[in-house]
Amino acid sequence: MTLFHVKDDRAKTASLARIPQVKSFPASAFIPVGQTGRPIWTNWSTAEAVRSGFKASTWVFACISKRMKAAASVPLKVQEEVEPEVWEDSDSPEGRELARLLHFPNEKMSSQDMTETIVSHLDLGGNALLTKVRVRNQPAELWIVRPDRMKPVPSRTDYIAYYEYDRDGQKIKIPPQDVVHFRYIDPSNEFWGISPLMAGGKTVDMEVEAVNWNKETMQNRAVPDGMISAKIPMSGKQFEEANAYLENQLLGASNARRPFVMGHDADFKQFSLSPAELDFIESRKLTREEICAMFAVPPPLVGIYDKATLANIQTARVIFWLDSIVPFLENLPDVWTFALAAPDFGPKLRVVYDVSKVQAIQELLKEKIKAAKTLSDMGVPFNDINQRLDLGFADLIGGDVGYLPANVQPTTQSVGSTSATLDFDEEDEEGIEGE
Description:
alpha+beta; 2 domains; three-stranded antiparallel β-sheet; 16% strand; flat; disordered N terminus
């Protein structure tokens, strides 16, 4: 059972999209003529994002790693439409073959490796691409392609003519039907995605530079705090001795921030601001929170426990899954279905992620079940409860009728009334009078 549902019939829509139809005008009419016939290049590099973000910032690495492992922990499933709007786990030969391909994409990569790579490429570069290796015109393997090496080439007739892959200077054309392209939508680019890291690049740069500044400060005082000027001329030997003396006093973490003394009637003039004046610690706290917000990861989940308690850590875990991972995983199946399942294995197949066993989702389900029990006791029909709380069950025959417990009887006393009308039979009245 899955806790999310597909609102539209993806496989059927994909099937209809492949049926030749007479169009009033082609989709390529919206593409500027200058863009057709040449690759779509951007000024954002996934390789540079890996080097300057993922490998340089503790918090970028922590956030993306958390998202990678969370998404990869959710299993992929292949479902088949057995009746209109009714989907079940597929046991057909085509469904089994598609499931095998998703679980074992190629001889060097597991399903977990593939999902983690897709997440990392999307978060760092905004795009993730796989190519299909066909055997007898049927996809037999899936291989991850580095986004910096492949770009779409728009067409005047077919929207995308082909993808151009750069293999060390050799240009290779790959048909669009052999490419599975995931992307974060960029409103200014119809063909290429945008990365969260691109939007928050300056914040990451500030964090990386702050770490580098602190490192250099401890190592060799790379930022000159001031200048020592002698009031008397110094010979070359005296200058070298003075420099050596300063190096012995300043170099290394053990000497950082220690005051030093110079002779020979010298004055010291301070140039730089102290970390306290720069509000160094508080500024780093701000940048790390912005990085967490960029990737929709609550700070306690990456080891930031400044204001954390056991209760809000548990809440943060639920928020992380419901607001970050589950919406992300709900978007991926669309691409799997349109680019792989429907065109290559059959229009009645679709790909979904089964999040029902995620602990945070199970905790939410428990709360929903409690609410459903309360509504049921109030006489609300099961099908209405199922739809309102999005429980994910199929509607039941007779589920449109609500029921109340048999021992519940109506009363003639109005709510809040101080008196009630009681009906007695004659024997009761005689008994009362006799007393």
